[in-house]
Amino acid sequence: MSDAASLIQELQRLEAEAIETLAHAADTAAVEAVRIDFLGRKDGRVSRVLRGMGRLDPADRPEVGAAANRVKAALETALTARLAELAAGEAGPGVDLTLPGRSSWEGGRHPVTRVMDEMWNVFRDMGFSRARGPEAETDWYNFEALNTPLDHPAADEQDTLYLEHSHLLRSHTSPVQIRTLEQYAPPIRILAPGWVYRRDTYDATHTPAFLQVEGLVVDEGVSFVDFKATLAEFARRMWGEGTQIRFRPSFFPFTEPSAEVDVKRVIELPDGSSRETDWLEIMGAGMVDPAVLDAAGVDSERYTGFAFGMGPARIAMLKYGVTDLRTFFESDMRFLEQFVPEAAR
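^ that's the sequence the OP posted. Answer follows.
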């Protein structure tokens, strides 16, 4: 047998031995040991065989080189396959890796966001535009321009989060009223959603940061009848045809007269019957005080208007039967997954 044939035969023998050894490799460390033993650059057994090519006739070297490349490729394939087998085994007994994978969990809109969107759709259909303002305000826009002196209890540090240089975190979205009136001439019909901040205790009915929605209508001849009709239509579209609305006298520095607005809903029961709820407060509202129009540079002799403010989270509590306001902030998937569309689960 020629030297070339002898080397090729030895390469084939090493290939068979390596594959047999791999079949019994119990873990990735054992597979790596086989790789080093047979394919290591310095001391690998295939490499040692190839060192004998130096004594071959130059005409025989290509044949031996081709055989060596084939053996190396075969061993690399066998090593990769054995590692894959071991990885599949680590998945644990009873795991069928051929089963289709589970789709990732998809989120849905937060319940408060859903209520915000519903409210916006209702008021947009009634001709309102969306308006926004800064969350860090001056005491002028947050209090004084809204007919609230700085010595008023609402401006007390116990309620308001003050910053530096007469700035503060707005305690309501009403400053957007002033900024809009300064920028645009009536007629104005806006809805201003946004975050507000107060030094409230974090409990079942209060949070130090919450969403509020402010509404403002200013035009010539706007009356209390327009005010009541607008809010009655909002309640009807939000909760259904049988919804009733009630105004209770109240006081806010920036509206006169002022009112708390309550609704009474009709709930359909599982047996097909229905019942009315108790009266539930949903917002504070009133006719815009002329002093507010004057502070914004609007002629209060010519224009009148009404304004209202409400918390979407409180309305979401009523809509979804939530009893603790903190539930909306806790990111509990068991609660939030109730609002994921069925097709996304």
